[in-house]
Fold this sequence. Notes:
single chain, alpha/beta, Rossmann fold, 2 domains, four-stranded parallel β-sheet, globular, binds phosphoric acid mono(formamide)ester, binds norvaline
Amino acid sequence: xxxxxxxxxxxxxxxxxxxxxxxxxxxxxxxxxxxxxxxxxxxxxxxxxxxxxxxxxxxxxxxxxxxxxxxxxxxxxxxxxxxxxxxxxxxxxxxxxxxxxxxxxxxxxxxxxxxxxxxxxxxxxxxxxxxxxxxxxxxxxxxxxxxxxxxxxxxxxxxxxxxxxxxxxxxxxxxxxxxxxxxxxxxxxxxxxxxxxxxxxxxxxxxxxxxxxxxxxxxxxxxxxxxxxxxxxxxxxxxxxxxxxxxxxxxxxxxxxxxxxxxxxxxxxxxxxxxxxxxxxxxxxxxxxxxxxxxxxxxxxxxxxxxxx
Length: 309
Ligand code: CP
Ligand code: NVA
């Protein structure tokens, strides 16, 4: 799609529904190519810089492998090894890297940092997770839901847990494709108003109902997709003890899932903590698609890379 070429990929709020469907279709095609062993190398000579200020397994490996499979290369840059870690500004880093590489993927803390990077970079900037958003994850989640349920409209997605990055991205993703979405979180852990308001507005166009509740049963009632994420996100480690208590009623377990549709699918962005946000028999059970979901990160990100570069 012409409209994605050269663009940043910071949040799904900026990506049209048409472009989301285009990316999902392209990801499915790239997945098929890989399954049959057909090589596709449109990014020969292209380099992706990957800056990580937080740990990562899926995002790091899938972006790096994705670039290699598309014929390009990727640089893993730990922020502590960059001058960024010694106080060089984001703006200067952006202006320098823009002359060496073709795109920058960054995982960082404050969302404002990625916006600043994108402002000063003359090349596409991709969000590999901020405190507020995780658009690549949400796109992989949509692909997985579509593979299993073959539709979006008419489905209900229930996210049970912390209303932060993954929940934000999912609400927007669901709203864009017309899927109903309810977030259930403890009081004080709601998604940001900016994301809720945006999702509600987008949902008005697409026909999706977006809701936030403090009642996990209400969220899960008749849901087709149940999603959760860790109770303590990266950077919040000092709050983990308190979070363990506050989030206890929000554990996704068989008791809660009695309220879901019998053919519900369970998703989790991973990494997971069995016995905390999800019971082991749920994440390891027959309704869990978490590894198909993790696998889809690769295909979705290849679609993003091909479209932006
Ligand atoms: N889901 C996800 O982004 O995983 P990583 O933290 O391993 O990249
Ligand atoms: N909410 C989690 C997601 C990890 C992929 C975190 O921010 O740590």
